[in-house]
Amino acid sequence: MTRKTLMLIPAALLLATPLAAQDAAIDVNADGMYSFPELQAVMPDMTEDTFTTLDANGDGLLDADEIAAGTDAGLLPASDG
């Protein structure tokens, strides 16, 4: 396991509520993507480093594919539906 992965494990454990259950609460501008401020508003323990790791294409937003990859990697909570 890399150092970066080990650093992300505590952050992932703090993200207890599934993202799908919070979708409307997170995506306040309804653009279909999550910005760091949107995500941090509902997940205060989200760090910029974790967000940057999740933001695979580096555009400053998490799209559905990046959220799915983060969930599959255990860095984001899984959907309960």
- Going across the biggest sheet, name each strand in turn: 1-2
Biggest sheet architecture: 2 strands, antiparallel
- Name of the level-1 CATH class of the domain at 27-81: Mainly Alpha
The helicity comes to 40-55%
Average pLDDT, all residues: 76
Terminal-residue CA separation: 30 Å
Keywords: Signal
Pfam family, one: EF-hand_5
Domain EF-hand: 48-67
Signal peptide: 1-21
Can you tell me about this structure?
The protein is mostly helical and 81 residues long. It has a domain at 27-81: Recoverin, domain 1, CATH 1.10.238. Helix content is 53%, strand content 5%. The protein has five helices and two strands. The chain has helices at residues 3-14, 19-26, 36-42, 48-54, 64-72, and strands spanning 34-35, 61-62. The chain has a two-stranded antiparallel ribbon with strand order 1-2. The longest helix is centred in the N-terminal third of the chain and has 12 residues, at 3-14. The termini are far apart. The relative contact order is 0.21. Residues 8-18 have low confidence and may be disordered.
